[in-house]
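Example record

The entry below shows one chain as it appears in the dataset: sequence first, then structure tokens.
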Amino acid sequence: MSTRKQLARLVVLIIVFGGSLMTEAAEAPGSNPQTYISNSQFMSKFTAQDFVPDGNLAKPAWRVASWVEVKRDAFTRVEFPQAATEIASLWTSEYVYFAFRCKYTTLNVYEDKDPTKEFWTLWDRDVVEVFLNPQPEHLKRYYEFEVAPNDLWIDLEIDLDKNPFNDPKWDSGFEHATHIDSKDHVWTCEMRIPVAGLKGTKPLEANTEWRLNFFRADGPGNDSQRRFVSWSPVQNDTHSFHSPWSFGVIRFVK
């Protein structure tokens, strides 16, 4: 997606101009806040039984989850009903689960790739994404999980104070599965993220609060034609998803 390409170009310019652009960007109003500015609240409900993702959101566990619908552009007030996305979460002490139900018009995916290996630049096609921070006191350190309609995937450890800021060598051990309903033009995704795979994170307990945001990239064409939606509106000057100050709160409840 364009946000990552823009950030990559910014890194190159910073190297060329000795970091002056980074200073200017950091000082621009609203471009790099040092505290959270989002009041968005998301609820993850406790489930008594762990389960392996299979892409089927009709299972009983998801019927009692709290679902939210996302269809607003990540950076503006424009809405994309054709890309409406329902999102829910469940948890146990050992895992966090996420579910996505995605309307689509035309799928835009990488074909003939190995789904057992993570795929770099997955974000340049259709994808759902979770940006998850289990240690909110460290605003610029978090994790990124992406899954495409055909179950291609990538997970990344993010530290915005490093260069490069994304570490693809990190392996969370998260599991995922998708299903495509071509008749009704809906694709679904389940993710299961092991808490133990998130460095320094304790087993989950009720009323724990983390920070996160949800994103979806949808549709064919170049980035000026594709749709980019988010749950918590993104506020920055570069149109980058990597804006952790815009992360909302996820609360784990029983």
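Notes for this example: The first helix runs from residue 2 to 16. The two ends are 37 Å apart (CA to CA).
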